[in-house]
Amino acid sequence: MKYKPVIGFEIHTELLTATKMFCGCEVGFGGTPNTRVCPICLGMPGTLPAPNKKAIDYTIRTALALNCDIQSPTYFDRKNYYYPDLPKNYQVSQNYNILGVNGYMDFSMGDSRTKRVGIDNVHIEEDAGKLMHPEEKAADYSLVDLNRAGTPLIEIVTEPDLRSVEEVEAFMKAMKNLLEYIEVSDCKMQEGSLRFEINISLREKDTDDFGTKVEVKNLNSMKVVSKVLEYELKRQSRMLDEGKKIMPETRLWNEVTGKTKSMRTKEEAKDYRYFPEPDLMHIEISSDWIERVKEELPEMREEKKERFIREFSLPEYDAEVLTDEKKIADYFEKTLAKCKTPKAVSNWIMTEVLRELKEMDEEIDEFPVTPACLATIINLIENGTISGKIGKTVFEEVFKTGKDPEKIIEEKGLKQVTDESAIQSVVQEVIEENPDTVEKYRKGKTKVMGFLVGQVMKKTRGKANPKMVNELLGKELQE
Amino acid sequence: MNIETLSIKEVQKKLKEKSISVPEIAEALFRQIDRVEPTVRAYISLNRDMVLKKAHALQEELEKDGYPETPSLLGIPIALKDNLCTTDFPTTCAGKILEKYHSPFDATVVEKLRANKALILGKTNMDEFAMGSSTENSSVQKTANPWDVKKVPGGSSGGSAAAVAAGETLGALGSDTGGSIRQPASFCGVVGMKPTYGLVSRYGLVAFASSFDQIGPLAKTVEDAALLLQCIAGYDERDNTSFAGEVPDFDAGLKQPVKGKVVGIPGEYLDKGLNPEVKKVFESVVHKLEQEGVECREVSLPHTAYAVATYYIISTAEASSNLARFDGVHYGYRSENPEDTMELFTRSRSEGFGDEVKRRIMLGTYVLSSGYYDDYYLKALKVRTLIKQDFEKVFETCDAILAPTCPTTAYGIGEMEDPLEMYLGDIFTIPANLAGLPGITLRGGYDDKGLPVGVQLIGDSFKEASLLNFAWNLEQALNLREYPQL
After folding, report:
1. Which of A44, A78, A144 is nearest residue B321 as measured by Cβ atoms?
2. Residue A45 and residue B240: Cβ atoms within 8 Å?
């Protein structure tokens, strides 16, 4: 390729606080429009903001996790622009004395390589509401839902340090994982609690000069980010090849056309007229405060990995895989809470769960086999109700239907047969139907045992207890 | 009974003695309102039936529980500037854009007045969104100065000042961003006080300029003002800029002598531009204070000349953002049949705001615009710091500052045509707002037309008690208890 991509991110993540940034309204997703609102988040005349201290704690925590310098005092600024989903027509944000600056994040490229991306700043702000446009084209109105307005939001701005699609994908995964590990956000991209905005420019292979930056918004999954990036790289290199100038602009991704479209050019760029928010005092962040936030930091990946090895006697490899993503580790521990066999749980997750998850391309939150279901399946195998093989069938069935495992076993009659006389009669049948094979065995060709076991299993549709089949067959053949 | 000449304290005495009842007070005030309001036009909203009903309820409470021991406003009628949110009266800020607006909540000061059992009488006229110095910028009506009904009452709390002066209420609340309590108090010959920024919660005050706005009392006497302030001051977790310290007892040292104390007279305030008659009254007041044994010495506030410019940059910047929410989308005036959202915004605002408000929004938007921020807004913030430091220096050696409140007495309605000239009328009140300091205005004398001339005392931060003590002594020494003839 003639050009080298230069890529940076702006990441917005909604915080997991109980209440909004400047009022006591509950934070949540969806719900009946305009039910989680009050005069403050509606921006009614005379109201004033009272800052949520937990949200500031979370911002400090995020800034520390991203190796930022904490600026003290820090303060809020108003970002002024008119939009109907913004009740005050200004957003309380940070622009001048931002809480976290000059940070970085190291992340793994999936092999032995690691990459460092600079963090320009981490700041805190309030989210806007949502506009809902009616379906019919002729409608002359839009509706405003302010349930989300005032939700605490962190914005993370990276340096333009990423150079490839591969790096971008690894970065997004690592950033999401970090935010989950430090428990500041639930990072649900579909619900908008984690949002990526990407800025992309190209530069000639042998220069260090940056090209013109294009920003793309409205990206609701990592897959879309990758698509957008590939599309933009092609579009921009084609333009450069044709000798065209790339305009600094903001573009929107259109999922239907698979293209980006210009939203506004730099000439049209808004002047946000930032100025210090006079309704809020400057915030002094003492070293004691920082220490307290550090103490409250949840268990991070390395600690968790070591604990899994220590507490559950898992092999290092298992612990490594399970803690790769915070949500997988949580899934593991939730399953383990309902069954007592760590290694079995680990095996199931590392094989069945992760394989299906990868195919689904979904978050583990959306996975149909819940930790409780998986624990039930494992327990049923452990107590001999079903065989391991049937267990996999049940797992598939739960995955497809979301039904309760015990119900599936009952409906499909999958319970393991442990009745000795029942198995004995099938064994008898198989011996009678396969005299040649029995003969071979008795002549010392013991390998054929497998075939005979298989025949018994087939006749019992896999339900016979394999251990008992082996024992009974062995006894019969000795005779 | 001549209710229009009685102070809150005097009425309280009668209430305690049971020589008057709460409904009788209210009815007496309504009689006065009936008589003078057609001329004065101080109120935007009044609700006689509701208020009388409440008066009866308060009287019952008084008879049942007796007169409260602690500072109270039981049964005392109070008028509120119409930028203070109330659930029982509309809150219009005297602007078309909020003409039918009812707030879903009470301002903290209103809650406090209700907790102190005050009788909220009505909402008073003002310059639209508190922007102006004559109450002529009201979209509702022009209020007259009770001392000469052809003159303005001052502003922006002109309705509150006129209502107190005309005996249409016993006390009132106003808001002071650049002098909006003290200047109308001066024009109407009443006591008006702007507390230290942060002493009174701003929650429920419709914001004009957040870093300046303070709510304060207007009353006939210093003692009444002290009582009203006592009832509305104090920390409020809903206002992040409110002061978390204890509120002192303003009554305790109110009547202490001030002999031996030092008052600074800023030379810059007595310069050119000061009306000679105002100067004459001011000099007589200085003389009176000296007779009380107070040392009056000239001090310097060297950055005074920049105060008006600094104020109009920062306050309009804040206002341009504070008033952005009035867009016709969620509440208030909405323009009909707009083509699109942007037109809904622009037409609702163009039709809903008056000229002065638009002028200040444009000015504020300009000074915050990219490329101008550093030259205007940031520079103004620096000058603001210098002005604060001027005061700090003076308070190292002085207990208070004495100055004229305004360069002139009340001028004629319609007389002041140039907005810039009107801005300059606030030159003596603006510095205290820039520095966040408390100031109190009281009547110092009269000009040759018999119009009141105000003088103001400015104190150090949170030194309201000492300021009120000075003001009380001066009030006693001057002993001016004339009332306007209406």
Report:
1. A78
2. no
A467 with A395, same domain?
no
Predicted structure pTM score: 0.90
Count of domains for chain B: 1
Q: How many domains does chain A have?
A: 3
Smallest Cβ–Cβ distance between B238 and the set A44, A50, A280 belongs to A50
Q: Do B241 and A142 touch (CB under 8 A)?
A: no
Q: Do B324 and A271 touch (CB under 8 A)?
A: no
Same domain, A88 and A232: yes
Contact between residue B475 and residue B222 where contact means Cβ atoms under 8 Å apart: yes
Q: Are residues A307 and A186 in the same domain?
A: no
**Residue B148 DSSP code:** B
Return the structure tokens found at A162: 């990423």
Q: What is the pLDDT along chain B (486 residues), one digit of tens a residue?
A: 688 899 999 999 999 999 999 999 999 999 999 999 999 999 999 999 999 999 999 999 999 999 988 789 999 999 999 999 999 999 999 999 999 999 999 999 999 999 999 999 999 999 999 999 999 999 999 999 999 999 999 999 999 999 999 999 999 999 999 999 999 999 999 999 999 999 999 999 999 999 999 999 999 999 999 999 999 999 999 999 999 999 999 999 999 999 999 999 999 999 878 999 999 999 999 999 999 999 999 999 999 999 999 999 999 999 999 999 999 999 999 999 899 899 999 999 999 999 999 999 999 999 999 899 999 999 999 999 999 999 999 999 999 999 999 999 999 999 998 888 889 899 999 999 999 999 999 999 999 999 999 999 999 999 999 999 999 999 999 999 899 999
B90 Rama class: left (phi>0) / alpha (psi -120 to 50) / beta:
beta
Contact B325 A87 (CB under 8 A): yes
Same-domain pairing of A408 and A448: no
> Is B105 in Cβ contact with A46 (below 8 Å)?
yes
Task: Give the domain-ending residue among A412, A437, A454.
Answer: A412
- Within 13 Å of residue B40, how many CA atoms lie on the same side as its CB? 32
Token pair for residue A180? 């989950």
Say how many CB pairs under 8 Å bridge A and B: 101
Smallest Cβ–Cβ distance between A88 and the set B91, B239, B324 belongs to B324
How far apart CA A239 and CA A236 sit, in angstroms, is 5
Indicate whether A313 and A236 sit together in one domain: no
DSSP codes of every residue in B43-93: EEEE-HHHHHHHHHHHHHHHHHH-S-SSS--TT-EEEEETTB--SSS---T
CATH number for the domain spanning B440: value is 3.90.1300.10
Same domain flag for A322 and A457: no
Domain limits at B278? 1-486
Cα Dmax for chain A: 98
Residues of A in contact with B111 (CB under 8 A): none
A325 in a domain, yes or no?
A: yes
Over its C-alpha atoms, chain A yields an Rg (Å, rounded) of 29
Of B145, B146, B126, residue with least CA distance to B136? B126
The sheet that has A77-80: what strands, in order across it? A90-93, A77-80, A275-276
- Confirm whether A294 is domain-assigned: no
Instruction: Determine the distance in angstroms separating the CA of B121 from the nearest CA of chain A, rounded to an integer.
Output: 20
Tell which residue, A390, A355, A395, has the closest CA to residue A375.
Answer: A395
Q: Are A226 and A303 in the same domain?
A: no
Does residue A131 sit in the same domain as residue A177? yes
Contacts of B19 (CB under 8 A, 6+ apart): none
Residue to mutate among B102, B106, B110, B321, with most A CBs inside 10 A, is B321
Which residues, other chains included, contact B70 with Cβ-Cβ below 8 Å and sequence gap of 6+? Answer: none
Q: How many residues does chain A have?
A: 479
| Structural domain that includes position A355 | 299-412
Residue A345 and residue A374 in contact, taking contact as beta carbons nearer than 8 Å: yes
Residue A141 contacts B, CB cutoff 8 Å: no
